Amino acid sequence: MKRSFVGLAVVSIGLLVLIPFSYTQLNAAPSQYQSSEQSNMNFEDRERSEVNLANKENPQLSEGEVVQATKSFMDQLLQDTNSQHEVENYDSMKAYKDSFSDLAETKVVDKFVDRYYEERDGNLYIIPTETPPWFQVGEDFEQETTEDGNILITQTNQTELDGEYTIKFELQLKDNGQPYIMDIQYE
Fold this sequence. Notes:
The protein has four helices and six strands; from the N terminus they run H-H-H-H-E-E-E-E-E-E. It is an alpha+beta fold. The protein has two domains: 1-43; 63-186, Nuclear Transport Factor 2, Chain: A (Roll). The strands form two sheets. It has a four-stranded antiparallel sheet.
């Protein structure tokens, strides 16, 4: 019986020593796992930053983003008018041009609005004519990065009315990632 008691005492003492040590090891494992996890996350964050940096140096837009930028501009350019061609939503050229502020550079807005609209007798009127040759959805286009980091979209189209034309949009990405039209050229 003494032997059993001594054996039980040795086992108990052994357990008392081993349990806290094992518990410490078990608790250390999650922190080691977290460190490894954080290390992986830091690596992924660094990798994402490098990709973002590369995108800033060579930004690319999806076809949907190009379509949205060109469509938003054209939608704003085409205003509702009454039977006398008076614009319904704007009374002045200045207010109308200001409405493009999130879409395009002032020189672009001036080029198009001055061609298609006029202000008379304190009202804004559209000059009845055809819409300009424009970006065609679903048609191929090229995309390249300019020296100053803007995106140049080039598309060649042919329509019955306009014949063959090439349109070039120079887009800049705003801080929120939205494309902003810096220039539009035709060839």
